[in-house]
Amino acid sequence: MELFMKSSSLWGLEIYLFCLFIVLSNINGVFASHNIFLDLQSSSAISVKNVHRTGFHFQPPKHWINDPNAPMYYNGVYHLFYQYNPKGSVWGNIVWAHSVSKDLINWIHLEPAIYPSKKFDKYGAWSGSATILPNNKPVILYTGVVDSHDSQVQNYAIPANLSDPFLRKWIKPNNNPLIVPDNSINKTKFRDPTTAWMGQDGLWRIVIGSMRKHRGMALLYRSRDFIKWAKAQHPLHSSPHTGNWECPDFFPVSLKNTNGLDASYRGKKKVKHVLKNSLDVNRFEYYTIGMYDTKKDRYIPDNNSIDGSKGLRLDYGNFYASKSFYDPMKNRRIVWGWTNESDVLPDDEIKKGWAGIQAIPRKVWLDPSGKQLIQWPIEELETLRKQKIQLNNKKLSKGEMFEVKGISASQADIEVSFSFSSLNEAEQFDPKWADLYAQDVCAIKGSTIQGGLGPFGLATLASKNLEEYTPVFFRVFKAQKNYKILMCSDARRSTMRQNEAMYKPSFAGYVDVDLVDMKKLSLRSLIDNSVVESFGAGGKTCITSRVYPTLAIHNNAHLFVFNNGSETITIETLNAWSMDVPKMH
């Protein structure tokens, strides 16, 4: 993914922001305004405002960031590259920034690793992935933009000095580009190469995201030497009416345990594969689970795994352009994702001096049912936990709410387990909602409309008198054949700020849990000043929200637990911690 608003060209993005700037500034004169927009891309932050800046999420000291690129573990060091504007706080001037860590929590920021400088990336060095070759040499594949029309090719870069533990310098060899689109490919929709995997025939394979006539495509390329690549006759997978597939990710998952698998894992039994794509039509992350036919080089989603906007999402909120990698140190797969700002106007980013964060890295594995992925914050995050409070067996009747005190409510980690004695109070699921997205149902019902079994959950980043709050909650419905569990993160009352352009959605997803045998639901929320990352039912449903309170800031933020359903809810356990700040050198 390369563009903030996902236009098909850089000019499309400029027009969008240019129009916003005209509205904002009331400037007359088209050419003067366009020049000012171009200046915005290179308006370096004079100061950085900390009001909504996160405390324990990854972000550089200032300026714009977007896609995480080429995460990898190499010789004892974790590497994260990411799209970055070194000159300003809006999209533009993009380079590959580079940071390193020993634990994925504390980071050292280095000089950019890749920046546009040659004819094969003169107009842009866009997203890509890393692969560790058998001789323990890392290589990066990335998308280069070669002209002002956004024509795209695939390039590679290699470390200048393998003895440098941080791999500070990278070389772009002159035999780039490695892959140029043929006439069958839309050259402006040809980007974001995956980590490569090796087949049993000794050939390397990668996938590149693309689109043909609104058909999303995972184009497949093969190579014996990682230099000369040939396009397969058919894509690894494609699906009609899904639009452009950005930032594809393809990896194996174990059916036996939660351990991760290397992309080149060749075991045939007890393994499935995941194909993830970022859809620029609505800016969500979708994935399917299925079987990889290695003989035909085809990926076939399971019958219950659907491509496109009706399918499974990695995250039902503000989370995009994700990239995963295999961590051999702890035998796990980790996924990174970008969460952009929701205050929308370029002027907001310029005033803050920064824009964009990376979500907390998550361990990802296959649910025992084989039907979906589970995601959970990496265990290293727990090293930042400070003051702790604990509650047990507290009942909440209809309309009750209590405040969680003793921690910093603006920067916290909360885990809570809810239980209830009966499903009899569950509301009927309106058949008219069957064709709606979960977030539409959340917008209809919300957290304040009394229900039967729910709504119950957390009111995060709340002001003392609840003028502002972001509720994260469950609501249980009785459908024709089963129970439907709605999980919401509703930002509509998150701020008193009056800004029509501000994006304050009621994000939501359904949680696949059988409540008949075990009448329990768990929730974990990571609260960090302007972001709330929530994990329902042990990570089955994940929702990330960006919010900008005006009252619930720092020490004036509060945290509440509430129940607005007629069924009494029991808080079996609640553990909450204040969160420390990692080192970001």
Automatic annotation (TrEMBL):
A GO term, aspect molecular function: beta-fructofuranosidase activity
InterPro entries: ConA-like_dom_sf, Fructan_Metab_Enzymes, Glyco_hydro_32, Glyco_hydro_32_AS, Glyco_hydro_32_C, Glyco_hydro_32_N, Glyco_hydro_beta-prop_sf
SMART domains xrefs: Glyco_32
Keywords: Glycosidase, Hydrolase
Domain named Glycosyl hydrolase family 32 N-terminal: residues: 57-377
SUPFAM superfamilies named among the record's database cross-references: Arabinanase/levansucrase/invertase, Concanavalin A-like lectins/glucanases
Record GO biological process: carbohydrate metabolic process
Similarity comment: family membership: Belongs to the glycosyl hydrolase 32 family.
Protein name: Apoplastic invertase
Taxonomic source organism: Solanum tuberosum (Potato)
Organism lineage string: Eukaryota, Viridiplantae, Streptophyta, Embryophyta, Tracheophyta
Gene name in the database record: InvGE
